[in-house]
Amino acid sequence: MSELRDLYQEVILDHNKNPRNFGKLDHANCQHEGFNPLCGDHLFVYLILENDKIKDIRFEGSGCAISKASASLMTTVLKGKTKAEAKEIFERFHTLVTSSLDQPVDNTQLGKLAVFAGVREFPARVKCASLAWHTVQSALENDPNIVTTEENGN
Amino acid sequence: MSVASVLRTETAFDVQKIREDFPILKQQVHGKPLVYLDNAATSQKPQVVIDAITRYYTFENSNIHRGVHYLSSQATIAYENTRTILKNFLNAASEKEILFVRGTTEGINLVAQSYGRTFFKEGDEIIVSAMEHHSNIVPWQIVCEQTGAKLRVIPMNERGELQLDAYEKLFNPRTRFVSIVHVSNSLGTINPVEEMIATAHRYGVPVLLDGAQAVQHLTVDVRALDCDFYVFSGHKIYGPTGVGVLYGKQALLEKMPPYQGGGDMIRSVTFEKTTFNELPYKFEAGTPNIVGGISMTAGVRYLQSIGVDAIGQYEHELLEYGTDVLSSIKGLRLIGTAKSKTGILSFVLDNVHPHDVGTFLDVEGIAIRTGHHCTQPVMQFFKVPATSRASLAMYNTKEEIDILADAIRKVMKVFS
Ligand SMILES: Cc1ncc(COP(=O)(O)O)c(C=O)c1O
Q1: Is B110 in the pocket of ligand 1 (CB under 6 A)?
Q2: pLDDT in tens, B86-107
Q3: H or E element, residue A56
Q4: Pick from A3, A40, A128: which is nearest to B379 by CB?
Q5: Out of B354, B360, B363, closest to residue A39 by CB
Q6: What pLDDT shows up at residue A1?
Q7: Mean pLDDT of all residues in chain B?
Q8: What band does A80 get if pLDDT is binned at 50, 70 and 90?
Q9: If DSSP codes are grouped into helix, strand and coil, which group holds residue A114?
Q10: B109 lines ligand 1 (CB under 6 A)
Q11: Which residues of B are part of the catalytic machinery?
């Protein structure tokens, strides 16, 4: 049960229930769709980019608590950042959720995102936590494809 | 002893005794007793199946059909014996009608490629239903791409029952094939296949039944049903993975070209011309899953020793209990409420995504499946991204359903 509390921390439950920056962004000049066929998580991110800076960011969609909270927290962290900064944060986040359990977590640079350290104990949920981030990354790289995480089920 | 008490002891379903046969069920998961409710994905294996695998590799291992030595002939006899057991299991007319395949998916692909690709033409129509597993959609879409045929889909209602009047209206002179699921894996619906086959035959159209979720819950008699093809997987009926059965009527199989080429499926090969082996070997190229076939039979025998009807009846009791218990949870909606159903409890919770449900239940030692269950069109129909699915087997108990219900209530509290 303690691992569960690591995964579903209050912050995550709160962002799931009251997602920040939720909804469509009119005048977005950059947007992207992300999809996780395994659980049906589906989201759109909308960005207003100005001189390489993320002036505004919102998201919309449906998914599990982990994916929704991740998208919500991500928008709060990325607002105001440059593309390069966003990429760096994405990499730090990715390392956090995919690092092995015996590796110590360096929390110092992560701020609020550190709540996702619990995902490491649930490998099946890593994709949920990273979907929004991959989607923004593709948006920033102008990738025309829908982001998807691969499928497996019966 | 009175007659009544003798009858009672004969028909009593001793679930505790059955549980003893499944070593995996004695396990703890995350410090809790395992509650395995993911049987539609794959069932657990009784000791007799595990023993059959061990025995084969310990004492019998050898390649079949081609060897002249002792072990090879023993293995060949054991493997061919399984064909007879499976023939009797389905009440097929002959061993020639029992083809070993890797599973349901390969069986359907075999029919789509061998029968469909040979006999379908541009503008032909193939009927499937709204509740098919992806395994019974995609192979037909592939053959449609190859031949120019089209898919037609039987609609269903809100309870998850196929609409038979709409089904009959789909038939026209271009209809060439019907392929439908016997029991739905995401809804539990038992389709009225006997009636549906009779309808198709009135129009001269052959029917394939996907029996992946049927043969372990209902007695299936392919001759009484008069289906033209029937497929199922070994691993869902207490046997191993990587092996399954395709039944086909002999007359149809005779007309069909081989699906794959290689050893065993030939009579003679020269660089000029190859003549094919007779049924069923024509469709069994290469070294098959010998241990899979032999140990699947151990599973089938186990199933028969308890009795498929008795199992179905017990599971139905569990289903009714589970339906009552789960329906009483506020904020829980059951998806799939057909009148005729097997033990599938698919549900969605207000404000909690199925994947979160799955993770919370896992920590309680409960294994269920969350997702679209390879039936994305069903999810679209019910306008849900995914469901949580508890699927029952003969070794499940009412106590386990209570544990499930308690855990669901806990999850809902965390998310409320
Ligand atoms: C109804 C149905 N059809 C087909 C399949 C595919 O079976 P397999 O993966 O064993 O080929 C399954 C199970 O996954 C199923 O439930």
Answers
A1: no
A2: 999 999 999 999 999 999 999 9
A3: strand A53-62
A4: A40
A5: B354
A6: 55
A7: 94
A8: very high
A9: helix
A10: no
A11: 374
Chain A residues near residue B411 by CB distance under 8 angstroms: none
Whether residue B389 lies within 8 A of chain A, CB to CB, comes out as: no
Residue B211 Cα to ligand 1 midpoint, Å, equals: 9
Ligand 1 lined by A152 (C-beta under 6 Å)? no
**Complex ipTM tops 0.90:** no
* Neighboring chain A residues of B353 at a CB cutoff of 8 Å: 39, 62-65
Q: Which amino acid is at B334?
A: L
Is B385's CB within 8 Å of A124's CB? no
With an 8 Å Cβ cutoff, is A4 touching chain B?
A: yes
Ligand 1, atom 9, residue with closest C-alpha: B105
B41 and A154: CB-CB below 8 Å?
yes
Across the strands, what pairs with A31? A46
Among A144-148, A150-154, B60-64, B357-361, the range scoring the smallest mean pLDDT is A150-154
Residue B267, pLDDT above cutoff 90: no
The amino acid at residue A53 is K
3-class SS letters over chain B: CCHHHHHHHHHCCCHHHHHHCCHHHHCEECCEECEECECCCCCCCCHHHHHHHHHHHHHHCCCCCCCCCHHHHHHHHHHHHHHHHHHHHHCCCCHHHEEEECCHHHHHHHHHHHHHHHHCCCCCEEEEECCCCHHHCHHHHHHHHHHCCEEEEECECCCCCECHHHHHHCCCCCEEEEEEECECCCCCEECCHHHHHHHHHHCCCCEEEECCCCCCCCCCCHHHHCCCEEEEEHHHCCCCCCCEEEEECHHHHHHCCCCCCCCCCEEEECCCCEEECCCCHHHCCCCCCHHHHHHHHHHHHHHHHHCHHHHHHHHHHHHHHHHHHHHCCCCEEEECCCCCECCEEEEEECCECHHHHHHHHHHCCEECEEECCCCHHHHHHCCCCCEEEEECCCCCCHHHHHHHHHHHHHHHHHHC
Q: How far is A39 from chain B (nearest CA, A)?
A: 5
